[in-house]
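Pasting as-is:
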Amino acid sequence: MNTFTNTRTLPATPEAVFAALTTPDRLARWWGPAGFSNRFEVCEVQPGGRWVFDMIGPDGTVYANESVFQHIEPNRQVVVRHTCAPLFTLSITLEPVAEGTLLQWQQVFDDAAFARAAAHILVPANEQNLDRLQAEIQP
């Protein structure tokens, strides 16, 4: 098992959700599990653009992150390749639905053994990430 998938229907248009995914100051506010904050060094939201940042845990631990935006389809999809350990690809897909936007979050780890060992952290952390995104987009 190396793939984690979360779905959520958000009460906002795909355009509003996409803006929260691709506007650096907004992304910095909600990215990560509950209690985390972010310090962005580089956030080039464009295909091939770099994303270099630190996530700061509730205890003050700093987690360095580097990624590349592999694919961006406005109001439809953002694909991010995490280029430092642990290696993974995150695809966030948006689909308009009557209630707003159906978001699919699919995180695929290169190392299945790592994914299995970290599942107990990743599953709730991804849900917390979506909770924070939902709070960002709600008026």
